[in-house]
Amino acid sequence: MPAPIHSLQNAQLKRLIRLRERRERLREGVYLIEGARELARALSAHVLLETVYTCPELHSPDAAALPWAALPVTELGRAAFEKVSGREGPDGVLALARFEPRPLPEPPEAAAVLVLDSLEKPGNVGALLRTADGAGAHATLLVGDGLDLGNPNLIRASQGSVFTQPVAALDEAAALGWLRQRAFTLVACTPQAPQNYWNAPLAGRVAVLLGTEHAGLSAFWQQYADVAVSIPMQGRADSLNVGVAGALLLYEALRQREAAE
Description:
This protein has helices at about 10-20, 20-30, 35-45, 60-65, 80-85, 120-135, 150-160, 160-165, 170-180, 220-225, 240-260, and strands spanning about 30-35, 50-55, 75, 95-100, 110-115, 140-145, 165-170, 185-190, 205-210, 225-230. The protein folds into 2 domains: about 10-100, CATH 3.30.1330.30; about 110-260, Alpha/beta knot (3-Layer(aba) Sandwich), CATH 3.40.1280. The chain is built from 11 helices and 10 strands. The longest helix has 19 residues, at about 240-260. The strands form 2 sheets. Strands 7-6-5-9-8-10 form a 6-stranded parallel sheet, with helices on both faces. A 4-stranded mixed sheet has the order 1-4-2-3.
């Protein structure tokens, strides 16, 4: 293995810093994966890795347990790694991966799909991908501009579920077409709906539609929704965090699927 990189002026380090910016990631067609847990899930999903940068001095037990002998490794000194890391207290694992299109798998007869309409906060999207994975959702469709699947905060918030959960970024027409062709019932979550979400039929092929916290679902999705549901609010707050709303609906759909079986 080549000697570790210590120079803070090294060209590879400068490139990694540039790749914190979305435009640079899109220009090169690559993104960064930081953290042992996230990298382990990327490996399980056979993500194409260009290089894995490591600093053994910073390794956590999870980082030390990664299959280093099978990875394209470049070692960094501690100061160099901390310069390129986007985290406080990094665990010495940072991978460079290539974007690859992943087709959506065909759904079973009973399946929940999550549709996120114009969500731009990477933390919310990442948390929802993690929830979708945990609740056994079939896939997540991301609709709207501004979303960056390579955002490090999204990857971190998902704890690597962005790699294990089938995800596709589509425009509105393509997302609607995919769902209609597969006979999904479109369930819009909106505060104005008179029906509570637990009274809605969520056991078959259902697509849970969530919009932004400030604007809600777009008129496009409200127009095509088959069912509208709300989450009852007992206090003074008039809405929940979109991640909490998504968790409630996806786990209710899981409960109903299991009850139907």
